[in-house]
Amino acid sequence: MALCVICLDTLKSPMALPCGHVYCHECILSKIESDATHSTTHRCPSCRNSYSITNIDPNAVPGHLRSSVLPALRRIYLDELQDAPSPPVQTEAEVSKLRAENAILRAYCETWKRRANLHSAVIYGVAKVARGQILGMRAEHEQLEQKYQNLKRKYADLE
Questions:
Q1: How far apart are CA 80 and CA 20, in angstroms?
Q2: Is 57 among the domain residues?
Q3: Which pLDDT belongs to residue 29?
């Protein structure tokens, strides 16, 4: 018999957090609503791992990644519950297909990670060059200002 650590009773309509801890649907919702911060980032009552409850617009996620985006609170079905539907039986072909999709998603993640690293390196390089140019221009400005002041004094002396 699975127990909810918030109400210390048998799980009713169990919901899982991204960290894997399971609570009653009502208990975790009341915990989220009772947070004083009223932010979208919350912490698991058991392990204190943070999770976000914001809803992601599926149109903002690339099509090939949409199936991988999961909500923070997920309904789960425990074997002990009588009304829970039995999990679908997967054939070897379905398992192979899922493994292939997983490999493709991992490859996409690596590609995007490399692109992000390259992009940040380029941005850092551009910022470094721009900073160098700014310092050079500032020094040149100070030199020109000094020359201007000298010429201004010479002109005043001539008058």
A1: 18
A2: yes
A3: 83
Alpha-carbon Rg for the chain in angstroms: 30
Tell me, yes or no, whether 7 lies in a domain.
no
Of 68, 57, 51, nearest in space to 108 by CA: 68
pLDDT per residue as tens digits for the range 50-78? 777 776 777 777 877 767 666 677 777 76
pLDDT at 70: 67
Q: How far is CA 61 from CA 48, 56, 69, 100, 108, in A?
A: 28, 8, 8, 20, 13
Residue in 15, 55, 20 with CA at minimum distance from that of residue 31: 15
Distances (CA, A) of 81 to 5, 30, 104, 115, 145: 18, 23, 35, 46, 82
In the chain, the number of structural domains is: 1
Domain for residue 132, yes or no? no
pTM reported for the whole predicted model: 0.42
